[in-house]
Write a structure and sequence with these properties.
Layout lengths: L8 H19 L5 H16 L2 E6 L5 H16 L3 E5 L2 H19 L9 E3 L9 H4 L32 H18 L16 H5 L20 H11 L2 E5 H8 L11 E4 L5 H8 L2 E3 L1 H12 L6 H15 L4 E2 L6 H20 L10 H21 L6 E7 L8 E7 L3 H8 L4 E6 L9 H6 L14 E7 L4 H4 E5 L13 H14 L3 E4 L3 H14 L4 E3 L5 H10 L4 E4 L1 H6 L9 E4 L10 H12 L4 H18 L10 E5 L3 H4 L3 H7 L4 E3 L2 H17 L1
Parallel strand pairs: 1-10, 1-11, 2-4, 2-5, 3-4, 5-10, 12-17, 12-18, 13-15, 13-16, 14-15, 16-17
Antiparallel strand pairs: 6-9, 7-8, 8-9
Helix pairs in contact: 1-2, 1-3, 1-4, 2-3, 3-4, 9-10, 11-12, 11-14, 12-13, 13-14, 18-26, 22-23, 23-25
Length: 680
């Protein structure tokens, strides 16, 4: 509900306007109507407690649009605000540039200077006690492994086989980490530049469950404890969606007390929480927990037998989802693993007043995770979880795993993240098919499933400063047949070659599978005289940098490129999308959600598959126009976008580019852009 001039909260919105102007001036920017509208609405939401969804297109300046009212509210109302981002890049931008700038610009306009803090997961900080030898060395990371370790994977090491050079490199990294531990004031992994491998970092970090807490002899110097103490004193705390996932999954204490939550890149939140709440069980994970217990002198014969029994059943278990819960025999076997893990937890309890023991704590954490996983999987089906079986490739060891994930996370968001606090959710893509309803429901807003009062919310699209219809073309290749199972047809390859040649390279190719990206990349290298990079050729940041620096270069890839590339200018003049990015039909969680919607009388395809595709199309098409001077084409090589009934829903979710199905028009436009650049 939009406030009227007579509403008390209108005063709050008026107060924020001049503060935003001060922050924008400090940044050296210029006023933007959408940014001001956003700041005023966020300020009103924080004042009234009504949840708010804000769609802010590229170029709006949404970071300042929510940071200014968040800082103002936190200081003037004395209520802490937590700000969460999905990516480390945006988290770094908010914490190191935008938020300090806002705090400095607003200090003279507020009763006192704002206090800000960063909060990450426990494993992101160096553990001084582990560096000092208070924990056992991580398996597979010893500096002096036996020679045969170079070719034999360690069951506790998920990074695969090692060679002699890798072991030496690991040794150098660990030595460097030990030296850094004596210099760093934060212990934050991101402050170590250049970084180190995950295997090396595990040697100096612990999880929250492995931490000794107040019993640690170095608790006064503990980096994660310091970060949390700092967060408890801050007005605005910056964190990430993974931390929200932990909080939503039953550990709300990972975040300090707060009255408001601002979620940037909110379109990714439900997937991050789903991922955080997804668990897996295999004979390998059981063996790992048993090994940790045996290192404490605890006999694990009963758990070993339970693991063997389960392993025998898993060998014959088909891949796929179990709509009615685990098969009876498998459920009983998982239940036996649960019971034996419970017995080990009892045996691993430390003696009263015993010294803190890092190795014991690690064993307790490993067995507890095993117990909680098996307990959840062995429970009678409730409809709240999705269970399935997967089998790894032969190259990866062929391990069979059981998985469990929540059917929906809307209830977790509603009860764990939004209970008694205000939620502000923002992204460039929240309105799908012209409506906020789907995203709002996924976040637990509105009328909940089952009993309970409705949660009021409002949604607003503050627009974008870009003129999409004049800056870009949406080309739908209507002449092509609907995509099939092959990674690319000859007709598609012909069309891609025509488009890329007309664009003079300068193409970002977004593909639905790695196989499709590699197939098209190989074909274009043969057909065209332009550099073609493909995801997997190098690490992604290097590929994106090469793509941005050389205008003629093309970059092809999959999901990481759909949402993670920001290349303004002529280097990205053509965005290719090979097909509508529907989820895989065998995706266990989305197929279960589709069936649940249909069983409740809804349209499962539109509620799950179409909305998933709409979100990705909006994100992918958004790679084209990043500044007011960008020009180009988004080409979708899937005729269904023009011919299917759901096509209009999908196109309404995308930036409003000028639409056409005329190939000649598009080729001519791309050639003009190429010529204009050459003339310049």
């Amino acid at each position: 509900m939009t406030p009227t001039p007579d509403d008390p909260e209108t005063d709050v919105a008026r107060e924020v306007g001049p503060l935003l102007e001060a922050a924008v001036a400090a940044l050296g920017g210029s006023p933007r109507e959408g940014q001001r509208t956003m700041a005023e609405r966020v300020a009103t939401s924080l004042a009234t407690g009504e949840h708010l969804l804000v769609q802010a297109g590229t170029g709006t300046g949404k970071s300042l649009g929510y940071l200014v009212p968040a800082v103002h509210h936190a200081v003037t109302a004395g209520e802490r605000v937590v700000v969460s981002t999905a990516t480390l890049a945006l988290q770094r931008q908010v914490l190191t540039r935008d938020l300090p700038l806002v705090a400095d610009a607003l200090t003279d306009h507020l009763p006192r200077a704002p206090r800000i803090a960063l909060l990450k997961g426990w494993q992101n900080y160096l553990c001084l006690h582990k560096v000092a030898g208070g924990y056992p060395e991580e398996p597979g990371t010893a500096l002096f492994d036996l020679p045969d370790a170079a070719s034999t994977p360690d069951p506790l090491d998920d990074d695969g086989p090692r060679d002699e050079s890798a072991i030496k490199r690991l040794g150098r990294e660990i030595v460097r980490l030990r030296e850094w531990s004596e210099e760093t004031t934060t212990g934050d992994r991101d402050d170590l530049v250049p970084g180190v491998s995950a295997r090396a970092w595990r040697q100096v970090s612990v999880t929250k469950m492995e931490c000794l807490g107040n019993r640690c002899p170095l608790v006064e110097e503990c980096f994660p404890e310091r970060a949390r103490a700092h967060a408890r004193e801050a007005d605005v705390v910056v964190t990430n969606h993974a931390m929200l996932g932990i909080a939503a999954s039953g550990s709300p204490g990972v975040l300090p007390e707060h009255s408001a939550l601002v979620v940037d890149e909110a379109h990714e939140l439900t997937d991050r929480i789903t991922s955080q709440a997804t668990l897996e069980l295999s004979t390998m994970s059981i063996d790992q927990a048993a090994r940790l217990a045996r290192r404490q002198g605890i006999a694990t014969a009963a758990l070993d037998r339970a693991a063997a029994d389960l392993g025998a059943l898993l060998m014959d278990l088909p891949e796929g989802r179990f709509p009615h819960g685990l098969p009876e025999g498998v459920q009983a076997a998982v239940g036996a693993v649960r019971d034996e893990a419970r017995e080990l937890l009892t045996a691993l309890k430390p003696e009263p007043k015993s010294d803190a023991d890092g190795a014991l704590k690690v064993a307790q954490a490993g067995v507890l995770i095993l117990f909680e996983t098996a307990e959840r999987m062995a429970a009678d089906p409730s409809g709240h979880d999705v269970l399935w079986c997967s089998r790894g490739s032969w190259e990866a060891g062929g391990a069979t795993r059981l998985h469990v994930a929540p059917m929906s996370v809307s209830g977790l968001v509603r009860t764990s993240l939004l209970a008694e606090r205000t939620g502000v959710f923002t992204s460039a893509t929240l309105s799908l098919g012209g409506s906020f309803e789907h995203v709002a429901r996924s976040l637990g807003l509105g009328t909940p499933d089952g009993d309970g009062p409705a949660t009021p919310w409002d949604g607003i699209d503050v627009g974008t400063p870009f003129d999409y219809a004049k800056q870009g073309i949406l080309y739908i290749a209507r002449h092509l047949p609907a995509p099939g199972r092959e990674p690319a047809t000859e007709a598609q390859l012909d069309t891609i070659a025509e488009l890329v040649e007309a664009a003079g390279g300068r193409t970002l190719g977004l593909f639905s599978s790695r196989r499709a990206a590699e197939t098209v990349a190989a074909a274009m290298r043969e057909r065209l005289d332009v550099p073609v990079l493909c995801q997997g050729d190098d690490v992604l940041p290097t590929l994106v940098r090469q793509f941005a620096e050389d205008e003629a270069t093309c970059l092809f890839g999959t999901l990481s490129l759909w949402q993670g590339v920001d290349v303004p200018g002529r280097s990205c003049s053509l965005v290719l999308i090979d097909r509508i990015p529907f989820p895989r039909p065998d995706d266990p969680v989305r197929s279960a959600r589709t069936e649940a919607v249909a069983a409740a009388g809804g349209n499962g395809f539109m509620s799950v598959s179409a909305t998933h595709a709409a979100l990705l199309l909006a994100q992918g098409a958004g790679r084209l126009v990043r500044t007011s001077t960008d020009r180009g084409v988004v080409a979708v090589l899937d005729s269904r976008l023009a011919t299917a009934r759901y096509g209009s829903f999908l196109t309404r979710s995308m930036p409003p580019l000028w639409p056409t199905t005329d190939r000649a028009v598009v080729l001519a436009a791309l050639r003009r852009l190429t010529a204009d650049g050459s003339d310049g």
